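Entry for the shared binder. Reason: the reviewer on the internal report wants the predicted structure included alongside the sequence.
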Amino acid sequence: MDPRENKDRTSEAPSTEKGMDIKNARLNAGENASAQAVERPTWQEDVGRSALNPLRRRKLVEKGVFGLFRIAVLINTLALVVIVVFLVLNGWSAISWTFLTQAPYDSMTKGGIFPPIMGTLLLSFGAMLIAFPWGVASAIYLHEYARPGIMMRVIRLGINNLAGVPSVVFGLFGLAFFVIWLHLGVSLLSGALTLGALVLPVIIGTSEEALRAVPQTYREASLALGATKWQTIYKVVIPAALPSMLTGSILGISRVAGETAAIMFTAAVFYTPRLPSSVLDSVMALPYHIYVLATAGTEIEKTRPLQYGSALVLIVLVLGMNLIAIILRARLQRRR
């Protein structure tokens, strides 16, 4: 072999090894740079993460608040179930056809609760018959006709305050005004008027909210077609708001049917075996009847099943009246 070829080969080997080392160094530098790029986020990623933190915080707060709402609903539902189950277990033995259709006798330790059932129904429907038209008319005036100002704010403040007044205050008002001053006596009419005044603020508030929920375009379209303001209210606004107005009547029935303090001074009596023949006759009512059996009866322990049975019937009665109002509201909504 030629010595010059060996010399060329020996000179090419170090240069090849040197080139490979440079290439490996460049590859290592590229890998280090890419690793650093992966480990160190860019400024766009930093901005995105800082923007996501408040969003995550809001989502966590939202989940916490909704969790509290679910717990509140669960507590209320559980309380209702416990009360109903307790009354069913203790009062079911007293429920019978005789209990529902006869008047009490033998110092109210025997017999039934038919007069209190009828008295409760008459007082509830009488109160709603008085309060619902007046409440809707008041809401129409306040929302459609009255001009905003100091007087309107005072009136609305008074309505809101009346909604929170204890029922015993309304009972004393009914005693002084309806029973004594108007000489109506302790009667069905006095009790219905007192309960109507009790539930009137609730109906006014819900009716005004129902009128406020009717779109303004309904009124504008009716007026543009040549209708007067009253025709617009009567033909367009009230039919559109009536289903929501019935919500106030549902709340009113629930409160009226269970009131004791408001009727013990104005309508209810300890005992009467007869049904009222006129609106000026006194009546028995389930809430007051339960109160009498539990506190003022001659044999309280002996009437304990009757107390629980009467309370169970009262709950079923209230649920039944509410169910009727809910079905009526649903039908009106379908007609819309």
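Summary line for the report: Confidence is low (pLDDT under 50) at residues 1-14, 35-39.
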